[in-house]
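Input (Putative membrane protein):
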Amino acid sequence: MRRAFVLTGLAAHLIALALLLPAAVTASPADEATFIIPASDGYGVAECLATGDDCAAGVAQAWCTAQGYAKATHFGLIDRREATGSLKEEVAVTSRRGAPSVSITCSVMP
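Output:
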């Protein structure tokens, strides 16, 4: 009789675990993410995006794809208020060389 209760309890636990485990494992990333890239990254991403050359859309798309997102929804120079609200008015978001940083916003939805 005890064995039947133990097996019933074990079966209930296994069923509950089987139902809850897939929900925990299949967590999806955020629908949208914004990446701040310093001008001194060494790959030329900021230079291309800051100047608005023809390569800007391709570079932004490649960055999002490399990060696991479907497409780039917005890219360009960072406004001081986008990065943080704690910077003083006269302080700009810049790299060591003085070039402004850029942001790329990526989306999961194509």
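The CA atoms of residues 80 and 90 lie 10 Å apart.
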